[in-house]
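Quarterly update from the structural biology core.
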Amino acid sequence: MAGNRNTGRLPPIATPVYLDATMVGPLVDALVEQLSDEKLPIILINDCSLDNSHEACLAIQRRLSDIVVYIRLTKNGGELNAVTTGLRRAKGEFVATMGDNFQNAPSAVSKHRGCRPKKGFDVVYSCYRIEKNFWLRNLGGRFNDDAANFMLNKPLRLYLSCLRCIGRFLVGEIVKRRGPVPYVDGLILGCASNIGRVEARHDRRREGQSGDTLMKLLRLWKNMFVDFSIPPLRVSGVLDPVSGSGSNA
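Predicted structure, tokenized:
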């Protein structure tokens, strides 16, 4: 497919779209303008939005059919599920992921231009001096960061941002995962040994509000604890002999 071509210099970008019909068009135009010297493949994944995101994405795909691939999901599965869907469609040596709400400036993508292949990183995350999220998202992000430090042995100075550049091997490992909540960062940290950081600007949402709710964040933390950490295994190892001896009494 034409939209999946990779120049070998810039990664294709997988971008989940949810309730952002008015922002996805300007975002794609800004990406094209910032990186106009190259054919930048962009994969838009509509996470079953209830607004006019479908019509907006279709219009973009028709206008920029040589670089834009559009995927419409039939059920809302959350941002991480949409990201994984985009990774399955992306081609090339490495793939970038970013949000659709302009909190990551389109110019930040170019900072990943040569960082991963030149320095041999498995994955490169963007990091921010100041994070400008809604207070609940900031609180959840800090908790998620502390939990990942404890459960996943995440490097202390690494921030798990949605703007990442992922190498082909890791992409392959992520898309193998079949489950209800694919925790992308947990899979990355479980496989990657050489992780890079690129400083980028973080902005407030141009409009609307985050789709993250307390319930969604709780599901993510539960998934991290059960599927990607050692403590539950240690707890079960202690409890199993006890339960076993009790049943034989």
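Residues 1-8, 230-249 have pLDDT under 50 and may be disordered.
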